[in-house]
Amino acid sequence: MEFNQNAQLDPSQLTPGGGGGRGGGVALGGGLGLIVMILGLIFGFNPGSVLSGVSADTGTTQSNSNAYAHCQTGADIKNDRECRWVAYVNSIQGFWQGQFQQGAYQPAATVPFTGWKDTACGAADSQVGPFYCPADKKVYIDTAFADQLLQQLGAQGGDAAEAYILAHEYGHHISNLTGDLGRVQAAGNQTGPSSPQVRLELQADCYAGVWFKAVSQDPQGIISGVTQDDLNRVIDAAAAVGDDRIQESTAGQVTPESWTHGSAKMRQYWVGQGFSTGDPNTCQSVMTTDQLEG
Ligand SMILES: [Zn+2]
User: Fold this and answer.
1) What average pLDDT does the segment 90-97 reach?
2) How many domains are contained in the chain?
3) Lowest-pLDDT range of 37-51, 58-72, 203-217, 232-246
4) For residue 79, how far is its CA from the centre of ligand 1 (angstroms)?
5) How far does residue 266's CA lie from ligand 1's centre (Å)?
6) How far is the CA of 77 from the centre of ligand 1 (A)?
7) Domain limits at 23?
8) Is residue 293 part of a domain?
9) Within a domain: residue 117?
């Protein structure tokens, strides 16, 4: 995929974070974003305790100025690859803005950080991977760690895979705005292949697929020139973060009853459903359907 040189970028959608403080919020499903649970397994800690509300201001290395302020157009990505994060976020939010009734979409900032970050969902270590915090409606990501993480998980990585990670986190934001996320949180933290928690993760994958479809059909957009290889990388990344893959490589066995995000097959299926239909309503159906994989 390519970045449209003339596209205007809005770096204000990435913020140094603001706020912090101890919140009573619980990150998604007790459980967080795309990869947090997974890394918890790999590095042998309990993500529940990582996002426990410990004040961690001392470890935060974030300054208060916007490190992306110079990212003004797509052409700036050539000079500074870091600007691609602005392009991802702008593209994703631009799409969803258009999907909601006018004024109904609430923008969600992405907060890049390194080290520790205090969030409304508690303190987070960048090693936990990207996540969405429903309580403050922000996406948190260690941009430097994201690609490394994909490789660690055996994914091909690349721009499209990175963009998928962010699109997945924004998918959680969409579920938050539609109310599905709140309903799942209210239902508690059951796990398992057809649990509400897994459905919510698959819904986020589906929303990511819907966005990617729109990108592939809009040559004038911020991101253009989507290729089959890009789509393959997205599907590949979705599979790499499947619960069964992770369990197999970390524990040597697969225990579906403990799944929180769904199997590789399920995740691929729902990214694919989103991409092939390009219809957000498809993603709503994941909450109730019996067919969770192809
Ligand atoms: Zn997720």
Assistant:
1) 98
2) 1
3) 37-51
4) 31
5) 13
6) 27
7) 2-287
8) no
9) yes
